[in-house]
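Interim report to the steering committee. The following record documents the input for Threonylcarbamoyl-AMP synthase (343 residues).
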Amino acid sequence: LWIVDKNVDNIQSYPQIIEAAHLLAKNEVVAFPTETVYGLGANARSEEAVKKVFEAKGRPNDNPLIVHIASQSQLEEIVMDIPPIAKQLMDAFWPGPLTLILKQKPGTLAAAVTAGLDTVAVRMPDHAVARQLIEASGLPIAAPSANTSGKPSPTLAKHVQDDLYGRIAGIVDGGPTGVGVESTVLDCTEDIPIILRPGGVTKEQLETIIGPVKEDRAFVKKDEAPKAPGMKYTHYAPKAPLILVKGENAFIQQLINERRAEGMKVGLLAASEHQALYEADYIVAPGSLAELSTVASGLYDALRQFDDVHVDIIYSEVFPEAGIGQAIMNRLCKAAGQQMIEQ
Ligand code: TXA
Ligand code: MG
């Protein structure tokens, strides 16, 4: 574990980043911070390196990885042609939490990165440590979130350590990540781009730049096969069952009381504004309804906290679905395996 300042501007003062870059160049895997979540990086040109990522995470190999780049020239090296709409989005949101699916230039990446698809997911992260590390390695870096497959993504180096210690070559610790939910995945290979995974850049933000975008129905409805292979897996789940509740505070409290009367230890995830209204065995407030981005930042740490305190069941309030709320509710619904109680 190497600790570095998240605002690092002069890489020479951080031998840790140079060391991590050397490990990447030697086809080892290293976790590093981005503005969304920690990623588990590997040389995207090396089958050997990419295989280590899948093994460390226990990730199904039909689930392709995002390639992280730090420059325009790295982009041109791996994609065929860049549609004008994609260009506009890059100008508006890169570096940032937007992943674009583009046609891949054959033979430029290890086959396992794209799981045999003819497209590739690319993003330029908005985090000084990530950018410096990619630049220092001189490589396109394939990086999924640095969690064990199925667990909430890591927003602190400690989360990576809890999941992957002993299975990877190192962790660059740049403190808490910021956005807290993963990048938006947007398929730009169709005439009208399609959101495959809601994330850090909202649908509203995309539409102000390029007009209407579509959404993959599968991330809204459970019973359709999603176009992003990763979206079909249960994800982000804490150990105890999580149930979303759409209803008044008193209704939620009543459910908590019923379970406690049955002898269960009950956890609750609620907005900070409501925290004091409840009584439960363990209450976590990831953030505030007045500023939904704070809920996104704290969401995965909140879900992980329930594992540490060993609750038997977790109830969660629901959050408004506008803006970043769409990504928040997408992750909560997945963590809950779509279980929702409505008053
Ligand atoms: O914010 C993020 O995106 C983080 C940080 C580390 O950059 N990374 C991340 O990666 O969330 P991962 O592997 O956990 O999620 C990548 C998603 C998966 O749902 C995967 O199926 C989808 O992107 N994906 C990757 N390549 C694809 C492709 N060629 N076509 C469609 N979906 C793709
Ligand atoms: Mg992930």
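The two ends are 47 Å apart (CA to CA). The committee is asked to note this result when reviewing the revised timeline.
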